[in-house]
Write a structure and sequence with these properties.
The protein is 73% helix and 1% strand. The protein is mainly alpha-helical. It has a domain of 218 residues. A two-stranded antiparallel sheet has the order 1-2. β1 and β2 form a beta hairpin. The longest helix is centred in the middle third of the chain and has 32 residues.
Length: 485
């Protein structure tokens, strides 16, 4: 093994790792004794500079290499996904700057960067062992970030649930991976695909498939493995919830599609209407349908906006699984466009919720009443994000759904998956109701007498405006993103 080559291929991850050490060291030395705001701003500046350097290197190096048999694969598309993850990390840090939920600024920012490193290694992996290690490396950072608000009992409760569910899902995943290793004699996804090709879905392979789907179903918050998500989103500090719902979502769907389409290429099966054939596609189709229905219907009755966004995330996981299900070049491109634009929109929505929560002390729907008069710019950003999540043109959410549903309908030229697309469109219509509930509170209902205006921190407001601009831009000119996919 050439360690110099390994260092060269992992240069973006190395830069982020050095950055987190610099941020942690600076906070514990030269920034000690400074005000909380000063520590957050200096730490955020250092973290953003490090992420920008790593993103610039990943974007311009144009490498394609796999010298370590799947442990660290580099390609232009993988590097672009890393750039997206780094950009989402930057926006997470920007909306975190006015936070008052912790005095441990260095540790908080370092954990965000540590989770980013894990996600970057995850998207580069094509080996079962490396996938598991990277996934757990990122997950441990997310567990701690969920528990970071020590002034809120819900934060500790959410982190405990997240950790217990995560540990159980990791056990299922590792059991499935061990069976795949026993079948193939290798942990490389290509070798696994070769070993199971033409053998059919025997009981051992069926158990490996189901346990692997269970493990990843938890990571992407798909039904029935979603129970951790509402509590984690509600109890976690809002910037942490934004990172869980954005950066980890991009990496998880990217690697899930890679495992199913590459590792399980020999047992695809069919989920077409009256055309069911045993394989992983019927399993994914059922999970997708359940996620769309249960996520959207349960979101209707939520009074906490963060819980509403959690159930919305579950529903969107169902939509995204359509891109995995159809297994074509167009569907994979549509999936990545959808998950990236969804992540951008979600981090913006959580940013707005964070500002309201810091000003009012709660994310309850009632606290959004009169937002258009108390903070007009913030309310406008919220409207753009929620309408995009609902799929209203010309926003990015509409284009993402259009690409995804069109690729699913065109799959195989036989309309076999039309039933899933019809269900997805119907559930998208249902989602308008709960998104419009929030907008009704912001634009139609009046706040209680004497409710003060909301002062939006400058950095956070600039980040939200930029995110809203990206949502509009990618909806009007999707080729700006699709050219890299």
């Amino acid at each position: 093994m050439n360690y110099l080559q390994l260092l060269q291929l992992s240069a973006p991850e190395t830069i982020v790792t050095v950055t987190l050490l610099v941020v942690l060291g600076a906070d514990l030395t030269v920034l000690r004794g400074k005000s909380l705001a000063a520590r957050f701003h200096v730490g955020a500046l250092l973290a953003i500079l490090g992420c920008a350097s790593a993103a610039g290197l990943a974007f311009h190096r144009h490498l394609a290499a796999n010298p370590f048999d799947g442990f660290l694969v580099v390609s232009p598309q993988i590097d672009f996904v890393k750039v997206v993850i780094l950009a989402l990390t930057v926006f997470t840090i920007l909306i975190s700057t006015p936070a008052k939920f912790t005095d441990h600024v260095g540790e908080y920012l370092s954990l965000i960067l540590l989770g980013t490193v894990g996600l970057m290694f995850l998207v580069s992996a094509e080996d079962l062992l490396m996938i598991f290690v990277s996934l757990e490396f990122a997950s441990f950072s997310l567990y701690i970030l969920t528990a970071f608000n020590k002034h809120n009992e819900k934060s500790a409760e959410a982190a405990l649930k997240y950790f217990l569910f995560g540990g159980m899902s990791a056990a299922f995943m590792l059991f499935g991976f061990s069976l795949l290793y026993g079948i193939a004699g290798s942990t490389n996804l290509g070798a696994v695909a070769t070993a199971i090709a033409g053998k059919g879905l025997d009981p051992l392979l069926l158990i490996a498939l189901v346990t692997t789907v269970i493990g990843f179903g938890f990571k992407v918050a798909a039904v029935p493995f979603h129970l951790w998500a509402p509590d984690a989103y509600e109890g976690a500090p809002t910037p942490s919830a934004a990172f869980i719902g954005s950066g980890s979502k991009v990496a998880s769907f990217f690697i899930l599609a890679k495992i199913l389409t590459l590792g399980f290429a020999g047992v695809i099966g069919s989920a077409g209407y009256h055309q069911f054939i045993s394989g992983w596609t019927p399993v994914i189709a059922i999970v997708a349908a359940l996620s769309m229905v249960i996520g959207n219907l349960t979101a209707i009755v939520q009074s906490s906006v963060k819980r509403l966004l959690a159930y919305s995330a579950i529903a969107h996981a169902g939509y995204m699984l359509l891109g995995v299900l159809t297994n074509t070049v167009d569907s994979h491109r549509a999936l990545m466009f959808y998950v990236i634009t969804y992540a951008v929109t979600t981090i913006g929505a959580f940013g707005v919720v964070f500002v309201v929560e810091e000003a009012t002390g709660s994310d309850a729907l009632a606290n959004f009443k009169g937002l258009s008069k108390r903070a007009p710019g913030l309310a406008l950003c919220l409207m753009i994000f929620l309408l995009s999540l609902g799929g209203i043109p010309p926003l990015a959410g509409f284009i993402g759904k259009f690409f995804l549903f069109a690729a699913t309908v065109d799959f195989g030229n036989n309309l076999g998956l039309l039933w899933l697309v019809i269900l997805a469109i119907a559930m998208s219509a249902v989602s308008f109701y709960y998104y419009l509930r929030v907008l009704k509170a912001a634009y139609v209902e009046d706040a209680a007498d004497g409710t003060p205006a909301i002062k939006v921190p400058l950095l956070t407001f600039l980040a939200l405006v930029l995110l809203a601009f990206l949502v509009i831009l990618l909806g009007c000119a999707p080729s700006l993103l699709t050219q890299f996919l």
